[in-house]
Amino acid sequence: MTPTRLLDQQSESTRRGTGTENGTNGAATDAGTRAKRGFSKIGPILPARLRPVNRPTMWIEIALIGIGYYCYRVTQNAARTGREAPYHRGRDILSLEHALHLDIEHWLNHTIARIDWLIVGMNYYYATLHFIVTIAVFIWVYVKFPDRYRAIRTVMFAINGVALIGFYLYAVAPPRLLDPTRFIDTFCVHHTWGEQTCSGVAGLSGSMTNEFAAMPSLHIGWAVWCALAIAHLAKRKWVKILGILYPVATFTVIIATANHYVLDAVGGLVTVGAGFLVQRILQGRPVYGAPPAEPVRTPQPGPGALVQTPAAK
Fold this sequence. Notes:
By secondary structure, the protein is mainly α. It is 65% helix and 0% strand. The N and C termini lie far apart (61 Å). Helix 7 (146-169) runs antiparallel to helix 10 (218-233), helix 10 (218-233) packs antiparallel against helix 11 (237-256) and helix 10 packs across helix 12. The protein has helices at residues 3-21, 23-40, 58-81, 85-100, 105-113, 116-144, 146-169, 175-178, 186-189, 218-233, 237-256, 262-283. The chain has 12 helices and no strands. The relative contact order is 0.14. It has one domain (53-283).
């Protein structure tokens, strides 16, 4: 047998052995590669002119926020037309959580409510940081990361859109409104913002807020959106850690103040996933991947311009 023939047989044996020993890993790698390629092909459905990466005009952003608030008011009015259904749904969620051993709302609500300074602080946390932190992250990304702002903003608007659909189709009363003898309405007990009545959410007038917007929890959706932006874009490690801890603290607050169920938080996470998916379909690029570079436009010579040619050698 010639040396060449022997080497060919050894190579073939090695290939077969490798395929037998690592067949499972190879198949898994191929499947993972195919899945990754399939996901990378999602979108975009928007034409290139509607997918710029530069910073948008602030007035357009303000107009979009106004449209979002109008849609929120529409869902608020729709929820008030059937006032009994939200309460039934809230009890159904508690029953499901009890079956899944997730019903920690009553225990956490009564445990934290015994510590006055802590529960009062959580009341103000619930009523303020939800807006303050989100607006601060919006401005921070808008100013510091203009090439990423549009993608990150699209995720937030998609989160809100999905949540508003949930509020419209599945209005749910929070735990604090179900049974006053079982849950403590911490805003009412401690007169947050100096309110002497128990109407509204977070001490605000009931005409300004949707009391039946428990599922999904936008407090969790917005907090996770903020955390992802901070964790990916912040340079200081301690800032990243604070950003990651923000949704954890928010979850504790929304349950302790009896404003949400555990499954509301799960619903908030679902809206975040849906927001990223919508953004990928629309723009066809990962939110925190390398942003695409703007195309370089070469100036064209005018009609009277002289075109120089290289001298002949």
